[in-house]
Amino acid sequence: MGSFYHVSEEDWSLHRKGFDDQERHRQKVKEAIKKNLADMITEEQIIMSDGNRTVKLPIRSLQEYKIKYSDEKSTHAGQGKGEVGDAIARAGNEKGASGQGKKAGNEKGTDYYEAEVSMAEIEETLFSELALPNLAQKEKSDTIITDWNVNDIRKTGVTARIDKKKTLMAAFKRNSLNGASSFFPVKPEDRRFRSIDDEKTPQSKAVIFAMMDTSGSMGPFEKYIARSFFFWMTRFLRRKYSTVDIVFIAHHTEAVLMEENDFFTKGESGGTICSSAYKLALRLMETDYPPDRYNIYPFHFSDGDNLASDNLQCTALLEKVLPHCRMFGYGEVNQYNRTTPLMSAFRKVENPLFKSYVIRKREDVYPALSFFFKQED
């Protein structure tokens, strides 16, 4: 008795529901990260973490649509008591609806749940819109291997580079000449190997001078904001650029080079002479980071208080540094919106390479990062 087969066709698009829901969830997470980014990046638990901490974000639950049939007899289109011009719905927050009112409501609210978001997800969203501005190709730039290309096929080579397709074609051609149209046997003389050249790409070198005021006038809020900015700047640069050096400089009346960990944790006190940091940066440009080999980006964060007699020297040193920089960024932590000596002096600088930003609250760190590291169109 013969065998019977049943051929059926199934709509496999129905099996994508789980994948589609996963994509919707992922999109909701991205939207929540973007919406809460300004708050998240200044969370102390993140700034002081080892980079592996997760953050919980409120995310709107995904609503599943379904058809519900009414048990009652309902009217159809064109029937009923309505008249032309009657209002059939009202927009806005009606009585009892969820909102910010003072009275209790009786309508359903929006369902939210908390989702854990990793540091990597936060960085992916934040860093996608950041870049070093005015990055130029410098002399004696480092070259790194970014890819490889097959430039030739040879009869000798290492086994790891054997080209199976070319080898089988060579065997087929030889066997055909001997009257057997077959890929086998494959003999040693049939083997073909790829010859590979490394594709080298020049990478521009860059150095960032992270200069932070640690004097007595910098209170806990000012120091925390400055460290928050430099924390995310450091992670961004190391993630997106392989040939960037970061030099950490702290100053009060004197400027000193610091290890990264000390820069983010040690406190200082004393008076303020901001020019000491600029002098140290200039000295390093002369000895270790010549402008003909490095794209130079000094960043200075302060509360704007400075020794009165030092402001003119700061401006003079800034004018001396700017011709060798791709950009100079000055960030001032000024939560009380007061006029500061340093910002007053810097307002006279009219070089487009000098950029300044005033941070008044924690949420301003994110726009400050976007301002200084704005991607070029």
Summary, kept brief:
The protein is α/β, with parallel strands linked by helices and 377 residues long. It is built from ten helices and ten strands.
Number of helices: 10
How many distinct domains?
Answer: 3
Total DSSP E strands = 10
β-strand percent reads: 15-25%
Lateral strand order in the biggest sheet: 7-6-5-8-9-10
Order of helices and strands: HHEEHEHEEHEEHHEHEHEH
**Termini separation:** 73 Å
Kindly report the name of the CATH homologous superfamily of the largest domain: von Willebrand factor, type A domain
- Overall pLDDT level: 81
- Secondary structural class: alpha/beta
Q: What is Rg? A: 32 Å
Q: Give start-end ranges of low-pLDDT stretches.
A: 94-98
Largest sheet: 6 strands, mixed
What global shape is seen? flat
Regarding CATH, which class of the largest domain? Answer: Alpha Beta
Please estimate the helix content.
25-40%
Please tell me about this protein's structure.
Helix 1 packs across helix 3 (119-127). With 377 residues, the chain is an alpha/beta fold. The protein is built from ten helices and ten strands. This is Sporulation protein YhbH. InterPro entries: Spore_YhbH, UPF0229. Pfam families: DUF444.
How do the helices and strands line up, and which of them pair or pack?
Elements: H1 17-40, H2 44-47, E1 54-60, E2 112-118, H3 119-127, E3 142-154, H4 164-177, E4 193-203, E5 206-213, H5 220-240, E6 244-251, E7 255-257, H6 260-265, H7 275-287, E8 295-302, H8 311-321, E9 328-333, H9 341-346, E10 354-359, H10 365-372
Helix pairs in contact: 1-3, 5-10, 7-8
